[in-house]
Amino acid sequence: MNLSYCRGLLASAALLTSAQAASPEAAARVAAWLAAWDGQGLHRTATTGDEAGAAWLAREATAIAGPVTSESFQLERIDPVAAYVEIDGERINGEALFDGPSTTAEGLRGLATDATGAGPIAVRSLPPSAVYGEEYRRMRRESPHRALVFLTLGGAPGLAPLNAELFRAPFGPPTVQISSVERDRVLGALARKAEFRVVVHTTRTPAQARNIVLTIAGRDRTRPPLVVMTPRSSWWQSTSERGGGLVCWLETLRALQANPPGCDVVFTANSGHELGHLGLDDFVARRPGWETRATWIHYGANIGAVGSKLQVQSAHDDLRTLAVTHLTTAGQKPDLLSDRGVVPIGETKDIHKAGGRYLTLVGPPNTSPLFHLPQDRWPQAVDVAAVARVAEGMANAVVALTR
User: Fold this and answer.
1) How many angstroms separate the CA atoms of 369 and 217, rounded?
2) pLDDT score, position 20
3) Residue 186 belongs to a domain with what CATH number?
4) What is the DSSP letter of 282?
5) Residues of the domain holding 132
6) Are residues 179 and 313 both part of a single domain?
7) Residues 201 and 260 both lie in one domain
8) How far is 58 from 47, CA to CA, in rounded Å?
9) Does 201 share its domain with 227?
10) Quick one: 49 and 110 in the same domain?
């Protein structure tokens, strides 16, 4: 897909009516859902907050369309005991890298260097999006260092953890992640060749998490199914990161309950997102061949996050046109159209590689100021009106797709 086509598609969509605001009723639903989500605590996989999110979503979905199913999957939950860097006897608390190994309680000591040096401990500055590049994995796999310190670089000051893309197969040296506000302190110690002590002490506890799944039966059940999915786990409350996708998921469910589809539509809201998409892996494992048999609608991160842009991703022109048309009519024209050959970085990555049909809606991480930061909270992180418009546009798009 060339750039001129993308620009032409957006330009054509701009001619459609786009001034209509979301209804007060829709905005009220959005606000109530987002406030409830924010109040559940941290949504890390297989934790109390994750279970609170699952129970809440199950209640909301049941109220709209009837009973849901919970599809549980097993994992070894990481429980941090201690994660810090000690310099000159003072600790800088941080977070373990969840797909790296642990240290002992004593940790590792030594002189620190930047990534090009040969010391026992290396310091790197990385944004959350670094995990999607092959260079990042190569750096960790080939690191000669005994321990790593990642200064996390979010869109605002704070600790912005990196996802554990290889959670089930930890690799590289033990790694502690620390807040960007400690940058000058850490780099100053690096420059004067101070000794670092790195502690990444964790335990693993057998646990389970669950996906919330329900099906709206189509009039013709021989047709290939449509899957509407969104992740629902994250490092923090992540109200704008995850909340917009959950709102779109619920509003699409409402729309299809009012407009019965021609094909089966399976809704799944998955845990395990920050741990290499464990929930989606389990969902697909229960449905062999669905990567190419089904059409996938993916409500990704940062939909309606304040300051974020809205991006449409798909390898299929009809799905791209459908989304742009309905979003623009709802008053929320997409800001970006990715080239159809670009591999998505989220849950639809493997579907793209398998040649399946998918449509992803996402706010790219580098456009969302609070992505992966604890400041991503209700209400300041979310544009309620934007979320409501996106949810309306995509609900109408999905209804049209299922006819």
Assistant:
1) 40
2) 53
3) 3.50.30.30
4) H
5) 78-205
6) no
7) no
8) 17
9) no
10) no
Torsion-angle region of 210 (φ positive above 0: left; ψ -120 to 50: alpha; else: beta): beta
Please tell me the least confidently modeled range out of 40-54, 112-126, 179-193.
112-126
Q: Report the phi/psi class of residue 102: left, alpha or beta, with left for phi > 0 and alpha for psi in -120 to 50.
A: beta
Whether residue 14 has pLDDT greater than 80: no
Strands 95-96 and 175-178: antiparallel
* DSSP states along 325-369: HHHHHTT---SEE--TTSPPSSTTHHHHHHT-EEEEEE--GGG-T
Q: How many domains does the chain have?
A: 2
Are both 136 and 255 inside the same structural domain? Answer: no
Using CA atoms, how far apart are residues 399 and 257, in angstroms rounded to an integer? Answer: 10
Q: Which two tokens stand for residue 104?
A: 């002992």
Is beta strand 295-299 parallel, antiparallel or unpaired with respect to 195-216? unpaired
Euclidean distance between CA atoms 173 and 151, whole angstroms: 15
Q: How far apart are CA 37 and CA 246, in angstroms?
A: 9
Q: What is the predicted pLDDT for the residue at 7?
A: 41
Band (43; pLDDT cuts 50, 70, 90): very high
Contact 247, 391 (CB under 8 A): yes
pLDDT digits (tens, 9 = 90+) for 64-118: 999 999 999 999 999 999 999 999 999 999 999 999 999 999 999 999 998 777 8
8 token code pair: 């032409």
Share of the chain above pLDDT 70, in %: 95
What is the distance between the alpha carbons of residues 138 and 142, in angstroms, rounded to a whole number?
A: 6
Q: What is the CATH number of the domain that holds 18?
A: 3.40.630.10
pTM of the full structure = 0.93
Going along 44-153, which residue ranges are E strands?
A: 69-87, 90-93, 95-96, 108-114, 121-126, 147-152
The helix (H) or strand (E) run that includes residue 273 is none
Do 216 and 361 fall within a single domain?
yes
Residue at which a domain ends, from 205, 226, 256: 205
In 217-307, DSSP assigns E strands to: 226-231, 265-270, 295-299
Domain termination site, one of 158, 175, 205: 205
Query: Tokens for 174?
Result: 């033990």
Whether residue 192 is found in the same domain as residue 219: no
